[in-house]
Amino acid sequence: MSEIHNGLDTNVHKTVTLQDLRSGIKPASRRYKKVDHDMFLQLLTLGRVTKLEDVKRVGGEIMPVTWLHELHHLLTRSDDEAAVDKEGTRIRTTENKYNPATNQYEDQEVNMKAYGYDLSRDLALYGGISAMVNPDNSAFFALAMFFSEYDWSKGFAMPLKDHKAKKDD
């Protein structure tokens, strides 16, 4: 027999607790298998994960960067930092924003946000602490650390140089 509680049928609507879900949660060793990491490395080697065109894509980011960017906002409650150009000068742009004083939308000059690979790189070069708290910079750093088997100094995956081989020559 169904029971109505707070307007909900208790046979249909059940409160789910962590204990109810525990049996379906895999241990970390099974969630993040070496196979998954190897698969990503293979895709990376084939140029399917971080081709420079993908990392610098206009109008969208690769999904891991977007997800980490948004997670950064959620965890730190931070805003995107102001972008700088290749000389370190703040980039300004015009946006149509609401002005509460006039109760209208008006074009206003604002700082451009440091989104994407190029602006994140420039912020890292000239922005100091701003680069450390910018969500896109954190996301690109996390992506590089996940694929630590590669040299990321140019902003995309390249094979690591074997320094031992050079010393032996």
Structure in a nutshell:
Helix content is 43%, strand content 14%. The protein has helices at residues 18-21, 28-31, 34-45, 52-55, 63-76, 116-126, 129-133, 135-146, 163-168; strands spanning 4-5, 8-9, 92-99, 104-111, 150-151, 158-159.
How would you describe what is shown here?
With 169 residues, this protein is of the alpha+beta class. It has one domain. The protein has nine helices and six strands, in the order ββαααααββαααββα. The strands form three sheets. It has a two-stranded antiparallel sheet. The chain has a two-stranded antiparallel sheet with strand order 3-4. It has a two-stranded antiparallel sheet with strand order 5-6. A hairpin with a 4-residue loop joins strand 3 and strand 4. Helix 5 (63-76) packs across helix 8 (135-146).
Largest sheet: 2 strands, antiparallel
Figure out the total of helices. Answer: 9
* Large-scale geometry: flat
Strand order of the largest sheet: 1-2
**How many extended strands?**
6
What is the string of SSEs from the N terminus onward? EEHHHHHEEHHHEEH
Distance between the termini: 82 Å
Q: Give the helix level as a range of percent.
A: 40-55%
Mean pLDDT: 75
